[in-house]
């Protein structure tokens, strides 16, 4: 089992559960799942994750950019999970080079991405 702590920011409960189960089945003991940026930022302030998977669009016009910026400032690796292609959503300077995993994704893609970040 991996001692790495993985933060997941995903507003869709079914997708969040799927991601959590995928990571736990892959051997990650600590998976913190959040559905909004505020609770994710609180988690990061309490105990920083080893890596993160961030849904880009959190619904109701909200996005995960505040969390991405905080992770970047702390040097914590992360990837975006998104249904948006590189061409449809532009990211602020300094975040445009971040890996994006397209939804729908395969479980192996997530496990591989986390392994590469760690």
Q: Can you tell me about this structure?
A:
- The chain has 118 residues and is α/β, with parallel strands linked by helices.
- The protein has helices at residues 13-25, 37-46, 65-74, 107-117, and strands at residues 2-9, 28-34, 51-55, 78-82, 100-102.
- It has 4 helices and 5 strands, in the order βαβαβαββα.
- A 5-stranded parallel sheet has the order 2-1-3-4-5, sandwiched between helices.
- Strand 3 (51-55), helix 3 and strand 4 (78-82) form a beta-alpha-beta unit.
- The relative contact order is 0.19.
- The model has no long low-confidence stretch (mean pLDDT 88).
What fold name stands as the CATH topology?
Rossmann fold
Write down the Rg. Answer: 13 Å
Please identify the oligomeric state: single chain
Report the β-strand fraction as a percent range.
15-25%
């Amino acid at each position: 089992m991996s001692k790495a702590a993985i933060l997941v920011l995903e507003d869709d409960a079914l997708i969040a559960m799927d991601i959590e189960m995928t990571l736990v089945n892959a051997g990650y003991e600590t998976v913190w799942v959040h559905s909004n940026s505020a609770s994710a930022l609180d988690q990061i302030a309490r105990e920083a994750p080893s890596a993160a998977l961030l849904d880009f669009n959190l619904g109701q016009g909200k996005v995960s950019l505040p969390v991405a910026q905080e992770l970047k400032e702390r040097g914590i690796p992360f990837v975006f999970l998104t249904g948006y292609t590189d061409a449809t959503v532009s990211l602020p300077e300094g975040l445009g080079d971040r890996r994006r995993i397209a939804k729908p994704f395969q479980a192996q893609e997530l496990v591989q991405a986390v392994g590469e970040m760690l």
